[in-house]
Amino acid sequence: MNGDFSPDTLRAWGGAAVERLARYFETIESRPVLARTTPGELVAQFPPYAPEDPEPWEAIERDLDRLVEPNLTHWQHPGFMAYFATNGSVPGIVGETLAAGYNQVGILWRTSPASNEMEQAMVRWLANFVGLPADFDGQLADTASAASLIALAAAREQAFPDVRKTGLSGQPPAVVYASEMAHSSIDKACVVLGLGISGLRKIPTDAEHRMQVDALEAAIAADRAAGRKPIAVVATAGTTAVASIDPLPEIAALCRKEGLWLHVDAAYAGAAASLPEKSPLFAGWEEADSIVWNPHKWLFLPLECTGLFFRRMERVRRAFSVVPTYLETPEGSAGVREYMDYGIQLGRRFRALKAWILMRTFGSKGLRERLRSHIDLALQLEERLRREPDVEILAPVLFSVVVFRFAPAGLSEPERDALNQRVLEAVNRDGRSFLSHGVVKGKYALHAAIGSLRTEERHLDAFLDSLRSGRALAETVKSSTP
Ligand SMILES: Cc1ncc(COP(=O)(O)O)c(C=O)c1O
Prior knowledge:
The chain is α/β, with parallel strands linked by helices. Helix content is about 45%, strand content about 10%. A seven-stranded mixed sheet has the order 1-7-6-5-4-2-3, sandwiched between helices. Strand 8 and strand 9 form a beta hairpin. Helix 3 runs antiparallel to helix 13, helix 5 crosses helix 11 and helix 14 packs across helix 15. Pyridoxal-5'-phosphate binds next to helix 5.
């Protein structure tokens, strides 16, 4: 037999898949947030070879029930509080489905005018949504990690205009600066770009976890004095551990004075710049050379959709454009935007479609209301945690993240760390919530981020209940330990 399955089969299987997802969302609360799978348990259940003969759809359905759904960690569960949420909202799911079906491969403008021009429009919508000035242009990248790599490649190109030809050999060692709280994607970018980890200076932070600008200035001066070449500063607006914001205006002024590229990593918090009451926290980011924030984190889109914004896109083009003969087109030669020239990927997905559907169906107002409701819930959670015995809040709650720990008097710091680790394990075993952890100024910290579209006040009740039993259990384990 040749060819694809028929459109009627698409109707049947597609209908069944949509029905399955609807049921999944109807029952999501009854499932433990964190999968209870043990490592290797699932892979052992797959036969070693793909089937020789076609299998019926019903067999797939059975295995979705048996193998897949029990082993999912439910990112859209109302009790999901780990890391930063990523939502498969209804508009996001529909947009993803359509994008898969249309299967546009955005190599060139002509390989998908719809994808190309909708992406240009969505970059504008998203920039407008968070109040970035009109001279920001950009693209929809896959992840913030790849986006920061692209931005730092453009910074490297600006600092070493011959780098494409000669690489970095014979050049003074290049240095990028970021705070000690910056995301590991910046370390990875420095590795990939040939700067090495030794080319990344981690600048200390103040009591509120913000980069210390005097330390940054001193580090730049020390590197220049030692013959190294500072090229860029990465400021974080919404750090991964505590959602703190580096002092953007001061860092921007320093970058201007020093002639350095400023990249702002607002992967999680960027969406909150759409709220008038939060936008002052982002003052200064409009001076950046590049900014990244993720609609796939706190703007209710499923992976992947990252907004990467640039002033003066031609600087990115200089870093990335390689046009072989077979990809030359009259439109390209006439200057149409060819996204392959602005990053690593050649083929690119139709990411704009889900952003377009999301922004039209929720509306900017609806999106802002949802962001506000998460911030309100986080503030409620903070207040309620403060009433719990021995709880210490480890960072100001600027957005939807509460970072805290139990710090009973009479326990040493290592004992407190161990207690909080046990609490984390117990809460995650309980199944009603999923927390993650971090280390904040050397202390083991519990990280609760509100971001699921399904979280309501009653889920805070459930979380606190599970936290109290988790703590009781953690104390028992301790007291039964000799
Ligand atoms: C501040 C920050 N930057 C970058 C990232 C990486 O995001 P992505 O998974 O889109 O690469 C994260 C992830 O949580 C983050 O918190």
